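Our collaborator T.R. sent over the components below with a one-line note: 'Predict the complex.' Nothing else. No constraints on interfaces, no templates requested, no preferences about which chain binds where. So this is a plain run: every listed entity goes in together, and whatever single assembly comes back becomes the starting point for the next discussion.
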Amino acid sequence: MIEVAIMGHGVVGSGVAEIITTHKRKLFSSIGEEIHIKHILDLREFPDSPLCDRFTKSFEDIINDVEVRVVAEVMGGINPAYDYTKRLLKAGKSVVTSNKELVASKGAELLQIAKENNANFLFEASVGGGIPIIRPLSQCLVANEVKEIAGILNGTTNFILTKMFDEGMDFDAALKLAQDLGFAERNPEADVEGHDACRKICILASLAFGKHVYPDNIHTEGITKITLSDVKYAASNDCVIKLIGDVKVLNDGKMDIFVAPMLINKKSQLANIDNEFNGIMVRGDCTGDVVFYGKGAGSMPTASAVVADIVDCCKHLKARKYLFWADSTNDNIIPYNKSETSVYLRFCAEDPESALIKVKDLFGDIRVLSIENKAENEFAVITPKLSIDKISDCLSKLNNDGVTVLSKIRIGDL
Amino acid sequence: MIEVAIMGHGVVGSGVAEIITTHKRKLFSSIGEEIHIKHILDLREFPDSPLCDRFTKSFEDIINDVEVRVVAEVMGGINPAYDYTKRLLKAGKSVVTSNKELVASKGAELLQIAKENNANFLFEASVGGGIPIIRPLSQCLVANEVKEIAGILNGTTNFILTKMFDEGMDFDAALKLAQDLGFAERNPEADVEGHDACRKICILASLAFGKHVYPDNIHTEGITKITLSDVKYAASNDCVIKLIGDVKVLNDGKMDIFVAPMLINKKSQLANIDNEFNGIMVRGDCTGDVVFYGKGAGSMPTASAVVADIVDCCKHLKARKYLFWADSTNDNIIPYNKSETSVYLRFCAEDPESALIKVKDLFGDIRVLSIENKAENEFAVITPKLSIDKISDCLSKLNNDGVTVLSKIRIGDL
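Returned assembly:
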């Protein structure tokens, strides 16, 4: 019997307890021993829980229990999860977590502590919920040089964008629907502004390239400015718009990493990932494109990934898993204004015809998009591949000519 | 330094040698030791290979070399791969393979021998080429009861079906193109008759449900009878046709497993997997549907999966991986005629109108399909969900009425 503890009894934590209880036989046959939940840490009371005798409000009950070998941290947030995780690893206990904020901001340090104490720190559930991605990336694709990872990493924004495309809802209406259906928080900022996706692409980048990528200085753009006009222009170009976390390795070995909405061709595998689903494309030098698809959030999918990590820890009580990345100062990342891309631009101009001529002069080989019933003073184009710097430069030259940029969205080559 | 041997220097084997050579640094940083190719077994001569000094024609050089800890079996076929693999495992050497025929027909026995000799027998490359699926299924999804696995497991047939749908080529023309492009063998039977897909779904079923499923008695239908009329009727119903390997667990715990072409709704994640790509959907009770997509064959994708298994063996020289299934007599599988499904039926009749009335009487709540420019005496319907037995029964009753069944294709609920 292997004693484990669960810190947090919220959406994910209660799912973890449920799966360990209901899937006992399956888990036993995988490990050869029973997993037993000895403690559940939560400040709230759960008198009706079948596990009500396991609850504690004191972390000390867990850290001081020598029998507890594996702990699931599913509280979320940095404090006190960070402090607790550190202490547990230092005590030689393995920790598994679904906490993307913790992994994205403290991963390198915690992996180092785990290594020093011969414990495991696993976090399959921190990216993509129930979609297997951390383990495939670190194990199955180990014989590849990863060239790029691009993912729809946030279900809330993908649900909103899907509703905008499929049902012509505007952003506000789609957000409200997402909130009503429980896919979006009352305060949706972390989702719609891209911060959640940013943490996840940073975790994937750290893992794939071996150096911690901190989210702080990564260009992160959300979807709040996307309009139904953009949706129509995208569709006219056989594209959808998706919020993409993207990291690619440039020829000089530096990383181009950002979160931004992108126009994606409908033929792309990521284009067909709709509603609250997530999808992650890994471009390896040997495998080519490999895509992982599924529910990126939710109690049971996420909890099942946490339990899979618990199982892995139970099988590796003596041996360490080789999941690791080194600390870094993000100095291997190019500034966002050096990033190169085609962009979709939508303009409003007093004199659209002459404005279009100026845009052509500035950007070179553009493609003009057309939709039915477009606003009278509006036009939209797709530029050739240029640096963000160069694009801003060109746009600034239009400023004084009665031309306003209404939208600027990257074109994805995915 | 860990000494390995490669048996076979064909498409996959040469890729394995190349990856170990060119990705030396990446592999070293994962294992902490260098992988060194000591022997390559092949009866042919490769005087121009940079590894020409490692070639041997004698298996005894490998089995008798105590330094060799891990062997990649990439010869294909049952003989002598089966005999060699058995001897290597009995000698305590770990074996990794891309050989789906070997795993599908001898997996249980080889896993048992591996267990007894504290060696590993891994086969990530045997299904889905470079797509991670064996490890995700056995590790990441371990906290799920798998309900169903359905996959496009053969790139050749998927390429042919894609060309039939997208370009209106008939089967023979699409097959010829696949052969010209190197996606199909000169003798394409194993692909187009579904045998290759059958081996792969058997491996996945064995792994997911813990008992060996032997391909011999599994219903296996290929795509040779699919016509452009079927393609048109499918499209009229918002469907594509894909060759699917499918296994699901029924309420009584028995398995419904088969390989057959299926009409799949265009909205399904498997519907958008085109050309030579493979895709595998795993339906877990906790995760919901998870889909894995990528190149299912080819030298480098497959070789990279073999090398990932070599790396895993190198990390587990002392500990066994818990990949295992028990032997079985396929007695947990229902006979195919008990399998339940809706089917698409295309008929030719002397008197189509009265034939349609009879079809309605026999099948109950059918849906009639219509396409432009249909052949005069032809009609097509979709039946309600019935057992294959019941469907055959109904069809036999039409036999004497001047009605001919031109096509019968399952409808997939994927």
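Summary for T.R.: Chain B has a mean pLDDT of 95.
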